[in-house]
Each structure stands twice: as C-alpha cells, then as structure tokens.
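dumping this here before i forget
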Amino acid sequence: MNPLLRKLGIELPIIQAPMAGVSTPEMAAAVSNAGALGSIGIGASDAETARSMIRAVRAKTNRPFNVNVFCHAPAVADPAQETAWIARLAPEFARYGAAPPARLKEIYTSFVVDDATQAVLLAERPAVVSFHFGLPAREYIEALRAAKIVLLATATSPAEGRIVTGAGVDGIVAQGYEAGGHRGVFDPTAPDDQLGTMALTRVLVRSLGVPVIAAGGIMDGVGIAAALLLGASAAQLGTAFIACPESSADAGYRAALLSPVSEHTTMTRAISGRPARCLVNKFTALGDEGVPAYPIAYDAGKALHAAAKSKGEFGYGAQWAGQGAPLARALPAAELVARLRAELEAATRLCLVNR
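structure:
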C-alpha cells in the first residue's frame, strides 16, 4: 500500500470526485464501504446543510470519506453586466413560459470567508477535506491540520501545484483539462495552459514532493492503472459515478450521458460564470460572451434549467461531464468500485507480463 492510501485509510487507489450537486451521502458511503474514498461536495451548501450531509455519510459508513469545499474569490457584483445577461437569457425563459429573475445574487458563500462552515468541519472532523478553486487562509489550513484532518487540493498547473505544496497540503489532485465539471483554476481570468491529465500528473510527480492524484478522463481500471504508471498515488473519477443510482443527476442528465450525446463535451462559462466541462446542450450553445461572475451567473443558470425542466426540456442543465463520458456505466456505486478494482488488477497483471 502506498503512503497516501495509508494516510487516507483506504484500500484502493480510487477517489470518487466530490461533484457538488451530483454526489450524495449515499454514494459517498457506498464508495467508502467498497474500499475506495467516497466524497461529498458542500461548496453549494450552507454550514448546517453541510453538517447534515457529513452526518448522513457517517450514518452509513464508519470508513474515511472526503468533504470538498470551494475556495473561489467572492464575487464582485456588476449590476450592468448582470442586467444585460438577464436580458440575453429572457428569450430562452420565454420559450418555456417563464420570466427570468429580476436580479441575480451570489448564491454560494466561498469557504475562504465562511467561518461557520470551518467551525462545522472542526466539530465534525471528517477524515479528509479537499479544496477546489484555490486555498483558504493559512489559519484555516492550520486549524484543520491540527484537527488531524488529511488535506487535499486541486491544481491545474505546476504553478498551482507549488502553491499547494507550500501550504502544507497532504496531496494534490492534478486536474487535467479533459476533466468534467468546474475547472479548478485559482484565477479564471489568467491564461490557462490547458494541460491534460497525463502531462500534468507526470510533471507534478517529478517536480513536487507530495502525493499526486490524477483526475480527468479516467473512467475504468485501465485508466487508473495508467495514472499509477505515471507515478500518481491514486486516481479521482467523477463522470464515472454520475450514472450510478445513488447520484442525484436527473433523468435528462443520465439519458444524455448514456447516449451518443456523451461524445461531445465543451468548456463553458455560460452556466455558472466559471469554466466547466459540460455535455454539449442548449445552454452551452448560448456562448460565453457577457457572462457575469461566478456564482452570480449560476443564479440565472439554475432558474433557466428549472423553467425548461418544468416543461420537459433538460437541455439547459449543468450536465457536467469529462471527455471520457462515452465510457460511463450505469452501475450501483459499490458494484462500480468492484468492477474498477477487477479492471485495475487485470491491467496491472498485463503490465507485469509485458515487462
């Protein structure tokens, strides 16, 4: 067993990605009970909802699990831009007999200014906490470390990897450009080299002295084996778990993921205000020009999806998915982990035979 697995307290080098809004306590518990690391995302939740989610996982497993928080810079409102975006979306709302919101608001509180959620984490003490979009203040990190919580953080570039390492985080999630969902860039306005999972993982393994977790486009045991051969200590899979019955993905999302639609994904800001990889759908077709800041734009995005969904149209949803989406399987989470384990073992044996 490699050092990261010992530190995390898990058997398999597999982490189910947090996926706020898709992962559930039932999914996280099932994955952890199967020997991998289950995760929940609380970035879209307030402190008491986060506490309830953590306790719901604990009610179903006594094994370690991961709690993920969003560390984006708090949004700066731009009323003129937001009004223009509302007007841009008004015809889409009208298609479904609805009116857009009169104004948009910041619907999530960033963990970097969320003392209440920090207090919940220190009180509940999940085994693992992970950061996305950046890092919180050093005092937050030090308090979590003092509570004996293992810390992970996403990096999309060598520069971000060095920042994470310098903060004393225990492991880096190397998120390649092919990954589904929100890109974990610290600054979404800065140039992005768009490194793929393979290149980013290998660069971070060679240049940094902390365990690296490969993330992006990995859907099966062969992909996990490839990540381990690159020197990763584990692989994180998100899209692979969306079609599990334990996920909260709606029927339209599942149907699209398990259809030829899955062959086409795109990086878009239109839905939430930050770059995120999504199945190509009616929302991604609107384009990114004039989108307000994250998560203010998400207020409009969620309202438009709700209006369209009420009329049976699912194409305005946040159907996050990575480029490996065509490999998705609709299996219970525990069964999927068992399948991944068998595939990983078979791929490892094949590698040994071919040496």
